[in-house]
Amino acid sequence: MARQTSYTSLFSGFLPALLIFLASCANPVAPSGGPKDTTPPEIIKEIPANQSVNFSSDRVILTFSEFVMLKDIATQMVVSPPMAEQPVFTTRGKSLIMKLEEPLRSNTTYNFFFGNSIVDITEGNPLAGFQFTFSTGPILDSLTIGGKLIDAYTNKPVKDAFVMLYDSIYDSIPYKSRPYYIARTGNSGEFNLNNLRDNKYLMFAITDINADYMYNLPNEDIAFADSLIRPHIPVKPIIETDTTKRDSITEKLPNVPVYTLRHFRESDSVQKLLKTSLLSENVISIVFKYPVKKPVFTTLKPVLTGDWNITGYNKTHDTLTLWLPGSVADSLKMVVADSGYTNDTVELSLKPREVNFGRNKQKSSTEISPKLGIKHNLVSSRIKPYGLIHLNFSEPLTQYDFNKITLIADSILLKPDFEFEDSIKTTLKISHEWKEGQSYQLILNDSAFAGVFGHYNDSIAFRFSAFTEAETSSLKLLITIPKEGMDYIIQLMTSQEKIVEQKVINSNSTINFTYLKPDKYRVKVIYDTNRNGRWDTGNYLKKRQPEYIDYHPKEFELRANWVMEEDWAIPPIPAE
């Protein structure tokens, strides 16, 4: 009897352990670790098949390789033709069921653009740009439109933007309505709008920041076709490897257009005051959004009259510096305006905050600090033989004595030329026939300059030397322009597109870029149609495309002691 009790106790102790083991086997746990899943869900079955005809059901079933869910379907999905009632979605296992809530039109091709709304459950990877198409009649609309979207200022492809077609044609429709057809651009900026019906459309592209398929944010980049477009028969895409060719998307066949849309951001033309700040005691910086036309400063507290400030402008005339040499106030309140567009009241301290500890302890200064600036300099303390030296002063000058400026080369005293670049005398340029390889010393003797605040300079010397042809490179361009009546801004840039030099021509010209650092360079042209000296963006409602740009097809690799010569026939602006 005691032995039987022993077996019962043993079994009762073993049973819980067995149940725990079986439970653990029945509940598999996903293995931890390993690389993150970045693969989007894959469709393995469609009922009916995508691009079916004679569709008569009220639902579509899509089965995936993994469990999926819908994300932002209300804003992501675009149905063409538009439906009054949006489809209702449910999931069953790995299947997504789309139930149509309204009767379908007869003999009509429907396209459902899902955007990025279908994602896998585990990592949220989207099935990007998925479209499902069917026809309720025996024929599926099969017309197509293809092209490429590029950045208007760089000509680089724009990916992951939307190209959209509208069958209702009025200028403001991209602001108010979602498109009739839509496609997403690929990595090379290419797009294809398929299964279109024969009609004329307004074509518009957008980088859709808020995912509503409408143009309603000022920082959304856009593009548009100048005229209404009409689809044509499908053409097999041919991707070219030569990126210098203009039409690298589709084989050019008769009557099959390839559209190149140029992406840009519209400029807000309303003048705005962006920033005011104190640069130093009684020196104010005022920054506008655009170049000022007629700035007006009206003091409120204290009320200042007469010539109470000296105003300086930067090169682009959008940043102003105000010096207040006679002010004894601690602060200033004033109204800032420009040609009636901007009217802001600002209040600024005129005294910098004192820092009385550590390395930041402030010291009063009684000197002007002229800085040596060398136009077109390549490296520190080097100058081109035709270059200029610029001395930039921290305040307008009231006195100057050029006899206290000494220029020496090989112990020989030289006589350079002096000229102020601005009327308030904050920038002095010094020119001379610099000799290749020659070393120079420029000495500013004590009190050569006096400023509006009564500051004088201490003695200071600058050492520099002139480049030689043997250590630098030259590029000579023989340029033929396509037409007269506009300016062509020729920009020499590094391979990273940093502008090195810029020249403007309006006729067939020879341009020499000399004393260049050995490196790789590109040459860009801006077709300056309005001759204002800069690139201008577009405006959709005014039907103004951004100014066209192009690049020389070559990248120039320049070596020391090289002179490279190249012919360049600038191509005409292609038809938009």
Highlighted features:
5 domains; five-stranded mixed sheet; Immunoglobulin-like
Can you describe this structure?
The chain is mainly beta and 576 residues long. The protein folds into five domains: 43-135, Sandwich (Immunoglobulin-like); 143-263, Immunoglobulin-like; 279-349, Sandwich (Immunoglobulin-like); 371-467, Immunoglobulin-like (Sandwich), CATH 2.60.40; 471-569, Immunoglobulins (Immunoglobulin-like). The strands form twelve sheets. The chain has a five-stranded mixed sheet, with no helix packed on it. A hairpin with a 4-residue loop joins strand 36 and strand 37 (499-505). The longest helix has 25 residues, at 2-26. Residues 1-31, 235-256 and 372-378 have low confidence and may be disordered.
Summary, kept brief:
The chain has three helices and 42 strands. With 576 residues, the chain is mainly β.
Layout of strands and helices, then pairs:
Blueprint: H1 2-26, E1 43-47, E2 59-64, E3 68-70, H2 73-76, E4 78-80, E5 88-92, E6 95-99, E7 109-113, E8 118-120, E9 131-135, E10 143-151, E11 162-166, H3 173-176, E12 181-184, E13 190-196, E14 202-206, E15 222-224, E16 258-263, E17 273-280, E18 283-288, E19 295-301, E20 310-313, E21 319-323, E22 331-338, E23 342-349, E24 371-374, E25 382-383, E26 389-392, E27 397-400, E28 405-409, E29 412-414, E30 417-420, E31 427-431, E32 439-444, E33 449-451, E34 460-466, E35 473-480, E36 487-494, E37 499-505, E38 509-516, E39 520-528, E40 549-551, E41 556-557, E42 562-569
Parallel strand pairs: 10-16, 25-34, 35-42
Antiparallel strand pairs: 1-2, 2-6, 3-8, 4-7, 5-6, 7-9, 10-13, 11-12, 11-14, 14-15, 17-18, 18-21, 19-22, 20-21, 22-23, 24-26, 26-31, 27-33, 28-29, 28-32, 30-31, 32-34, 35-38, 36-37, 36-39, 39-40, 39-41
